[in-house]
Specification:
single chain, 4-stranded antiparallel β-sheet, mainly beta, 10 strands
Amino acid sequence: MSFRATVESMSKIMDDMGITELDLERQFLFGVYRKHIHLSKGTTVAMPSFPVDTSIKNASTGANGVAKEYKNALKSPMVGVVYLATEPGAKPFVKVGDTVHAGDTVALVEAMKTFNPIKATSDGVVKEILVTDAQAVEFDQPLIVIE
């Protein structure tokens, strides 16, 4: 579900339940993010719109731009940059068709100058790699599908 769809859905639920205030809290490695939101009837909240480069296709969206769900995908545990090899030009950790075992490192996500290994959670075969080397990734973004 897209961010916009999530916000719209949450807004509708809040409206249906008569909720006008919301406290958000998210813990990160470097601290805690807290946000208090107060909504009132008759107030319009504008969602910012960003230009979209339609020439670039996100690997986690289909041809129509709708997010696809990946049942067996390993997801990024944080916002950062994903690396598919130990260094530029090195052999990648995995490629499509490789057999992996639970605990095998399949990628790295760098955040705040720290490289965090992404490990296979179960034995299987790499079916799809959804990111490119050195690509910026979001929290919970699907990276690699292992079945």
